[in-house]
Amino acid sequence: MNSDVILVIVVATALVFDFTNGFHDTANVVATSISTRAMPPRVAVTMAAALNFAGAFISLAVAATVAKDVVQADVVTPTVIFAGLIGAIAWNIATWALGLPSSSSHALIGGVVGSAFAASGANAVIADGVLGKVLIPAVVAPIVAFVAGGLAIAIIYRIVGRLSPGPVTRGFKLGQVASGGLLALAHGTNDAQKTMGIITLTLVANGTISADSNVPTWVVIASATAIALGTYTGGWRIIKTMGTKIIKMDTAQGFTASGAGAAVILASSHFGFPLSTTQVINGGIMGAGAGKRVSAVRWGVAGNIVVAWLLTMPCAAVIGAAVYGITDLFGAGAAGPLVVSVAALLMLAAAFVRRAQQQTPVPG
Amino acid sequence: MIPLAQIVETKALLQTVAYSLVAAIGVTTAFSVAIYGVTRAAEFRRDERTIASTAAGALAAFALGICVAAIVLAVIVMTTK
Question: Chain B: nearest CA to A130, how far in angstroms?
């Protein structure tokens, strides 16, 4: 009974994380299309949600591999996973409130690393894995995307620079629809699988399914639905930052950022080095701006985004460790996760009420 | 202490960087060549320069073919990973 309660709490928390993942990362897919008016905002977000949903069904190959290279498998318990998820959700909500695009995957890995560290000490963390699989790619991703975006836009301006702007603008808008669709599909495939992996891992740890079982169908449908709903809800603050605050984007730059971004993400995925979608698209936007004119990039905004990237793993890890510490105070049963879940829901409700009150116009 | 080169799969990382750059620049260049071809073909047609228009149209079709192939390859990468 006790383990079933924990199971339900962890599954629900994983789906909430999946929702925030879609919500937070909508901007990666639609910001450039909305900013250049390639698609109306609601159409762009609906298309992204539908393709995220479809993407979640495309492949299940890596569903069970999340976090396996960064923490020792034997320390991963449902409570460790729960604390890690809360760390990731908290960081996603904090960065959304500040309108800063940051990697949901890095937040999840940071949260799990922090909670595993709090549960079993430094030996629980595979330092080589964290460095080789997460930190080095996190440095490489934005640099590659920046260089690709910069070089691509320079070439594009040379090719189409003297043509009449009407057909060129229409052409790049069409290109943005296609590249945005590919990005949404890739995002659904990659990120929904992380949640499927987390839920499957918890079901195995709880003894509900055996270790060699396939991912249950209800897990696939629930994860696909959660990420699609999150995407449809849309993190408009982050869309605004990416679409209008980093650079003032024309259609060629919007296509370069999303087209080059999709190419970088899928090429790296093919070679087994999947890079963060958020970092690639933002690096691509900055590169497309700098390729036109270095001063076209608002470097202050870009600097804030880079700081958020640097802080993502450590902050999610600290929150994950703190949450594990709190749950541990209540013993090994379901009481700890239950208390933390209720407290988190109350804090969220209070934040929404406060926001609603601030938005209510003063009468008369 | 383990050398950094052993922790990071240097070859895979360099391959990733090289192919990412080639894919990103290749696809965006191909698409802009397609736009160039379509636009120029329409201009030549207006000027009744049939051969030039056909050549520009063929260039656009070839470049678009590269883009479609890239999309198909991308979907294959997603489904086989």
Answer: 10
Alpha helices in A161-250 (DSSP H): 165-205, 217-233, 236-240
ipTM (interface predicted TM): 0.90
- Beta carbons of A273 and B77 less than 8 Å apart: no
Task: Please report the residues numbered 158 through 187 in chain A whose beta carbons come closer than 8 angstroms to any beta carbon of chain B.
Answer: 159-160, 163-164, 167-168, 171-172, 175, 178, 182, 185-186
Half-sphere CA count of A64, side-chain side, radius 13 A: 15
Whether A135 contacts chain B with CB within 8 A: no
Residue B70: closest C-alpha in chain A: A263
A139 touches chain B (CB under 8 A): no
Q: How do residues B12-71 score in pLDDT, each as one tens digit?
A: 888 888 988 999 999 999 999 999 999 999 999 999 999 999 999 999 999 999 999 998
Burial class (CB in 10 A: 0-12, 13-18, 19+), A180: buried
CA distance A172 to B77: 24
Residue A125: strand, helix, or coil: strand
Burial A82-118 (b: 16+ CB within 10 A, else e): bbbbbbbbbbbbbbbeebbbbbbbbbbbbbbbbbbbb
Terminus-to-terminus CA distance in chain A, angstroms?
Answer: 56
pLDDT score, position A55? 85
* DSSP per-residue string spanning A31-59: HHHHHTTSS-HHHHHHHHHHHHHHHHHH-
Cα–Cα distance measured from residue B61 to residue A291, given in angstroms and rounded to the nearest whole number = 28
Chain B interface test: which of A69, A159, A187, A271 (most B C-beta within 10 Å) = A271
To the nearest 10 degrees (0 to 180), the angle between helices A41-58 and B50-80 is 50
CB-based contact A272:A69 (threshold 8 Å): no
Chain B nearest-CA residue for A188: B78
Is there a contact between A136 and B13 if contact means CB atoms under 8 Å apart?
Answer: yes
Closest CB to B78: pick one of A163, A186, A275.
Answer: A186
Span A332-350, pLDDT tens digits: 778 888 898 888 888 888 8
DSSP A76: -
Name which residue leads in pLDDT, A353 or A222. Answer: A222
Nearest CA in chain A to B9: A132
The model's pTM: 0.87
